[in-house]
From TrEMBL:
Homotetramer. Residues 269-486 form the Arginosuccinate synthase C-terminal domain. The keyword Endoplasmic reticulum does not apply. One of its GO terms (cellular component) is cytoplasm. Residues 98-260 form the Arginosuccinate synthase-like N-terminal domain. This is argininosuccinate synthase. Keywords: Amino-acid biosynthesis, Arginine biosynthesis, ATP-binding, Ligase, Nucleotide-binding. Pathway: Amino-acid biosynthesis; L-arginine biosynthesis; L-arginine from L-ornithine and carbamoyl phosphate: step 2/3. InterPro entries: Arginosuc_syn_C (IPR048268), Arginosuc_syn_N (IPR048267), Arginosuc_synth (IPR001518), Arginosuc_synth_CS (IPR018223), Arginosuc_synth_type_1_subfam (IPR023434), AS_cat/multimer_dom_body (IPR024074), Rossmann-like_a/b/a_fold (IPR014729). GO terms for biological process: argininosuccinate metabolic process; L-arginine biosynthetic process; urea cycle. It comes from Rosa chinensis (China rose). GO terms for molecular function: argininosuccinate synthase activity; ATP binding.
Length: 494
């Protein structure tokens, strides 16, 4: 289990975890749900959720039964929820005790901290997750969170869990959204949201918050996970409530509340990155007619500038799950990291597409997925040996629905979990290795082998054999083509 790193205590009892310094993840500030739930007012004051009720914490950070009972008594039951308008109308302002905020240290999330304190009168616990996005901003993040008014910062390394429990199941399922998108952002949101629910339980929070806007998919992905894992948690989405309309408003609000404004240069693109991919949106990309600029890409070289010599890479797979690269067994995150490096230097995995967002609008995005593209190519080729025609067709049809569920934020939906059980079962024999040739943005399969291969050279050969008698084909063709022959006879009056 990934470790937590808490850098300040909100509770009377000392509450600390330790973890190695790592890169951090942020709640993507660019996206957040049009479906809004309303809760009746909580039946307990903030003071009633503090003091002795919070006195007991177990050594591993678990909350005592007494405190849990107090929180449960204060929270509405699921049956008490009702559909309404914004969070302003929920009657929660002044009623929340503690909120866990998905935090990046950027402008938006830095402003959300004082905004929550000002408008909800609650303590704010900042949460930062590392899913391999490569942002080098962990140093000083505690100071940023404290300066913004947070009482605690929690950091969690989710890279191995992200790859093992989210990426690899999607890979095994063959899940691709709208023919191209390998679901990089879609898979990352539920693992982050799940960790937020865990942190909320550990620190006794009664709400969670994110910095997603109301136009995108991420708001749905976060909130559906919250609903599925802890329906009693309240959700606050500032971008759907506040009067801040853009970067300048956010800067003014930060100055007014003495919040240090990040001095990083604002990118002209909206980007989201993790160990699986890096996405680019905005600026000239908003016009589908515009070609992306060469200097926009960050994970992969331009195929024109890639090495003039191809590179061969061998992928080992066991039951549909990658386990090795060039004969070296690696952990899930390490394996993907290695393939990102290999694929990136050969310009592998660039995708430019116009997709249909869940909220209804179309958007244009450019994705870099070097390691993931290599893995998908290897998995498909191995399945060509190990799956029969009927199984492959059913799997491919279900993969479309599987991808749709993941894209829509329904990771913890029983339907996806049931489909995943099917994918796991039929992939039991998808074991073997595939050798790929990488050259200037292209992938060519050069070798595939499996101890469970259904391919038989003695049957497929043009030479005569005992198993397949070519003379049998005549009767098969007559029976197989009978409906077509009858139709033609009808037309000819025969």
């Amino acid at each position: 289990m990934a470790q937590l790193n808490t850098m300040s205590a909100c509770l009377p009892t000392n509450f600390a975890f330790h973890a190695p310094k790592s890169e951090l993840n942020l709640c993507h500030d660019g996206v957040a749900c049009q479906r809004k739930l309303s809760f009746q007012e909580l039946g307990a004051r903030k003071s009633e959720l503090q003091g002795n009720a919070f006195a007991g914490l177990s050594i591993n950070g678990g909350v005592t039964r007494a405190r849990n009972q107090v929180i449960r008594a204060a929270l509405p039951s699921y049956s008490e929820t009702e559909v309404a308008g914004s969070t302003k109308e929920r009657g929660l302002r002044g009623k929340l005790n503690k909120v866990v905020l998905a935090y990046s240290g950027g402008l938006d999330t830095s402003v959300i901290v004082p905004w929550l304190r000002e408008n909800y009168g609650c303590e704010v616990v900042c949460f930062t997750a590392d899913v391999g996005q490569g942002i080098k901003e962990l140093d000083g993040l505690e100071q940023k969170a404290k300066a913004s008014g947070a009482c605690q910062l929690v950091v969690k390394d989710l890279k191995e869990e992200f790859v093992k429990d989210y990426i690899f199941p999607c890979l095994r399922a063959g899940a691709i959204y709208e023919r191209k998108y390998l679901l990089g952002t879609s898979m990352a949101r539920p693992v982050i949201a799940k960790a937020m629910v865990d942190v909320a339980k550990a620190v006794g929070a009664d709400a969670v918050a994110h910095g997603c806007t109301g136009k995108g998919n991420d708001q749905v992905r976060f909130e559906l996970t919250f609903f599925a894992l802890d329906p009693k948690l309240n959700v606050v989405a500032p971008w759907r409530e506040w009067d801040i309309t853009g970067r300048e408003d956010a800067i003014e609000y930060a100055k007014k509340h003495n919040v240090p404004v990040p001095v990083t240069k604002k990118s002209i693109y909206s980007r989201d990155g993790n160990l699986w991919h890096l996405s680019h949106e905005g600026d000239i990309l908003e016009d589908p007619e515009n070609e992306p600029k060469k200097d926009m890409f960050m994970l992969s070289v331009d195929p024109e500038d890639a090495p003039n010599e191809p590179e061969y890479v061998d992928i080992g797979i066991v039951s549909g799950i990658p386990v090795s690269v060039d004969g070296q067994e690696l952990s899930p995150a390490s394996l993907l990291t290695k393939l990102n490096e290999i694929g990136g230097r050969h310009g592998i995995g660039r995708i430019d597409m116009v997709e249909n967002r869940l909220v209804g609008m179309k958007s244009r995005g450019v994705y870099e997925t070097p390691g993931g593209t290599i893995l998908f190519a290897a998995a498909r080729e191995l399945e060509s040996l190990t799956l029969d025609r009927e199984t492959m067709q059913v799997k491919d049809s279900l993969a479309l629905k599987y991808a749709e569920l993941v894209y829509a934020g329904r990771w913890f939906d029983p339907l996806r979990e049931s489909m995943d059980a099917f994918m796991e079962k039929i992939s039991e024999t998808t074991t073997g290795s595939v050798t790929l040739k990488l050259y200037k943005g292209s992938i060519t399969v050069t070798s595939r082998k499996s101890p469970y291969s259904l391919y038989r050279q003695d049957i497929s050969s043009f030479e005569s054999g005992d198993v397949y008698d070519q003379a049998d084909a005549a009767g098969f063709i007559r029976l197989y083509g009978l409906p077509m022959r009858v139709r033609a006879m009808l037309k000819e009056g025969i």
